[in-house]
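Intended use. Records like the one below are meant for learning the mapping from a protein sequence to its folded structure. Do not use them to infer anything beyond what is encoded.
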Amino acid sequence: MKFKHLTMILLLGIYALAGCKKRDGAVQTAAIQVTVEYPGNYSSAKAANVQVKLISKTDGTTLTGTTNANGILNLTDVIPGTYNISAVKSLSATEAQTLTGIAQELQLNAAENDFNINGTSTLTLKLTGSAAGSLLIKEVYYTGSKTATGGTYFSDQFVEIYNNSTDVIYLDGLCIADLYGNSGLINPSSEATPFKNDTENCYASNVWRIPGTGKQYPLAPGASIVIAQDGVNHKEAALNPNSPVDLSNADWETYNERPDNRDADAPNVPNLEKLYFTGGFDWLLTVFGPGLIIFKTDDFSKLEKVAVPNSTIAERIKVPKALVIDAFEALKDANSVGYKRVPVGLDAGFVYATDTYTAESFRRKVVTTINGRRVLQDTNNSSNDFVKLSKPTPKAFN
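Structure written out for the chain above:
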């Protein structure tokens, strides 16, 4: 009887302590073990010294850590919840040669979004990536602007491409394309791209190309070109005085020649070659956020045309990841990660504007300046590499 009585007292004491913890606001925490591995064709699977980042979907809290010699990161005292988890690893030419046999700098990424951490969780991230490009997408202005009467104006969109190397690069044959898929939950029936699970290819809706025979269009180190939707001064009274840009000095424009002449041809700006087009009267980048790639191919006609599953719309152009030089991803908002169109190996993140028609733009960050040449950040992650601007800055940094 005494033993039973003592046991009851102890149990009551434990319950009382538990109740105190709950009343005192103590939060039960969780733990996670993240293992990061190199691709299967590398000489080693263990990815040491990899930066891992966890971002809470609840309040944006960020946790970071670095994997050990076995490619493992252990984090404790993590608040239970849903997280977006990413990993990034830069390999020097020497490191890459040891792992792949090819002496070329590499930028590797991995991501797992909407991952639930509760109790003790484990996650394995497999790195993927491509060679760091010398040509980079420097700035993308896609949001459009408002008119004086509160209307919307999108003809002032542009994309800027920058030579981030120390050598002259010839742009002849360079292609630019926007990728198929919604940018987020734009309406109740919006679905993610049906190609989202293909990590080795991109699916282009429209493709344009810089013409040339091979060495007609050189781009010096630290220089850039601007590709305008329409190469005119959009601030003119007949267009939109509220527009933030004059693109009459753009290097190229996208002109969609049509029988009804709805897309005007700017006489002083040369036209890109239209290789494949599924849009309307003009090359409109979705104002909710486009996925963009630049790439080169020896024979565009050999790229596969792929039907969109469960749809009767036009086929899309299948662009292998190996051909892609650089990529950029913008989505509708912070919660639209499930609508990504660019494979994680090319771009592990995304940016988003405050709203549509805000005149906001996204420009790549500067890492350093060497003898007057700006070196731009290229981690193959738009979330890290780009900054949101209140207005666009074509061919400028301020």
